[in-house]
Design goal:
228 residues, two-stranded antiparallel ribbon, 5 helices
Length: 228
């Protein structure tokens, strides 16, 4: 929408006003870029990976789920499926039924060994140790986080991991790391990969061929691990 079209629309709306609402120029908030042909104003990676994780929880039906640092909208919606404990380095209150929150450092989790039946860490580990969110700079921060997640997942339990993956392993400092598929598998050695899915916009590929991840600089790998 052009500024001229906005002004024409405002004048028309004023002329045809039925008096139910105040309509003042000082209250106007022009939104000139929203009249697109399609609904494209969203991040497909976050739409797809949170949808995937919610579906895994609906399928696996754990009694309780624990998430570390994930997308808050995922927490609010998935808590309608299963009670969720949510922890972040920067604690946030979520006053919804089925959600409890707290603070935790992924490199030093305050939980006993093999104590959590179902847990997730969705698009979080790639940031650990880069200082972006006020955490300590640590070249191996992600490896320490992976070790802690493996330590606390219970026997017979599940771990959902989402990470940026692509053709080359690299750091986009201080935003995030990008992994190869093989690096992620190595980080979580000792756990069995039950499913690998791929958020590869515009597609989401469930039970994907890992080789597909080599065809992009950065996509989102969705890993469903179990501790047999």
């Amino acid at each position: 929408m052009t500024p001229e079209a906005f002004n024409e629309g405002l004048a028309k709306f004023k002329a045809e006003s039925d008096g139910r609402f105040a309509l003042r120029d000082s209250d106007c908030l022009p939104r000139l870029a929203d009249d697109t042909a399609s609904h494209a104003d969203y991040c497909p990676i976050y739409l797809y990976h949170t949808g995937w994780a919610a579906r895994v929880l609906a399928e696996s039906k754990p009694k309780q789920h624990t998430d570390f640092g994930g997308f808050l909208y995922f927490i609010s919606i998935a808590s309608a499926i299963v009670p969720i404990r949510f922890y972040d380095i920067r604690p946030v209150p979520i006053p919804l039924d089925g959600v409890t929150t707290g603070s935790a450092d992924l490199t030093k989790l305050p939980f006993e060994d093999e104590s959590i039946e179902s847990l997730s860490c969705l698009h979080v580990m790639e940031h650990v140790g880069l200082g972006r969110y006020g955490d300590v700079l640590d070249v191996q921060g992600d490896l320490k986080a992976a070790a802690e997640l493996k330590r606390v997942v219970a026997k017979g339990g599940q771990l959902l991991i989402v990470l940026p993956i692509g053709v080359e392993a690299k750091i986009v400092f201080n935003a995030h790391r990008i992994y190869t598929y093989e690096q992620v598998i190595k980080m979580f050695s000792g756990l069995r990969l039950k499913e690998f899915s791929l958020a590869f916009p515009p597609d989401f590929i469930r039970n994907a061929d890992p080789a597909r991840s080599k065809k992009a600089e950065e996509v989102a790998g969705c890993f469903w691990f179990v501790n047999d």
